[in-house]
Specification:
mainly alpha, 137 residues
Length: 137
C-alpha cells in the first residue's frame, strides 16, 4: 500500500472520529461528556462546533485534492487535542482520559499531517527527477 492510500485512510479515520465526537458533544447523547473529563456547561457546545468544523475542513481539503494544505492543517489541528489534554489535567480531570484519548488523537493528527507533507515532498522530488532526465536525453 502506498503512502497516498495510507494518508487518505488515516485522514478519513481522523475526520470521522472528530465529527462523531463533535456531534456527540452537540447532541449530548451517546457518550457522556463527563467521560471525556469535562463538565456539562455551555463550553461543550463550543467544543462540538469546533470538532465538527475541523472534521468538515479535513474532508473538504481531502475531497478537493488539496493534500499539502491538508497536511499543514492536520499538523496545526494536532495542537487542539494537546490543548485539551492540558486542560483536562489542569482541571483535575482523568489522567487516563488525558493521555489515553487526547494524546493519541494528537499523535494521529500530527502523524497523518507529517505523512501528507512528506508525500508532497516525494512527489515534488520525483517530478524534478523526471524533468532532469528528459533534459538529459
Amino acid at each position: 500500500m502506498n503512502t497516498h492510500r495510507i494518508t487518505t485512510a488515516l485522514t478519513l479515520i481522523a475526520a470521522a472520529f472528530i465529527l462523531i465526537i463533535g456531534i456527540r458533544y452537540l447532541s449530548r447523547s451517546g457518550v457522556e461528556t463527563t467521560s471525556l473529563a469535562v463538565s456539562h456547561d455551555d463550553a461543550t457546545a463550543f467544543t462540538g462546533v469546533r470538532d465538527i468544523t475541523v472534521g468538515t475542513l479535513l474532508l473538504t481539503l481531502l475531497g478537493t485534492g488539496q493534500r499539502y494544505p491538508l497536511g499543514m492543517s492536520m499538523v496545526v489541528v494536532a495542537l487542539t487535542p494537546i490543548g485539551d489534554m492540558f486542560t483536562v489535567l489542569a482541571h483535575n480531570g482523568s489522567t487516563a482520559i488525558a493521555f489515553g484519548v487526547h494524546g493519541p488523537t494528537a499523535m494521529l493528527f500530527g502523524l497523518t499531517g507529517s505523512l501528507l507533507l512528506h508525500e508532497q515532498q516525494v512527489a515534488a522530488a520525483d517530478s524534478t527527477d523526471s524533468s532532469i532526465s528528459h533534459v538529459a536525453v
